[in-house]
Specification:
The chain is an all-alpha fold. The chain is 75% helix and 0% strand. The radius of gyration is 26 Å and the shape is rod-shaped.
């Protein structure tokens, strides 16, 4: 019974370690995408808002 418990704890620790390593690697990844062009109506609204100030 003790052997099974030790093996289970080792498996849990391995899974926890792999989860932490994978999460850290995912947060370090930099996405490289093209910038989003503004919608045609958004440019007009920004000009209108700057005139009101």
């Amino acid at each position: 019974m003790t052997t099974v418990l030790i093996i289970c704890v080792i498996i849990v620790l391995i899974v926890l370690l792999l989860t932490i390593l994978t999460t850290n690697k995912a947060y370090k990844y930099e996405h490289k995408i093209d910038p989003v062009d503004p919608m045609p109506g958004e440019e007009k609204e920004e000009d209108d808002n700057s005139n009101n100030r």
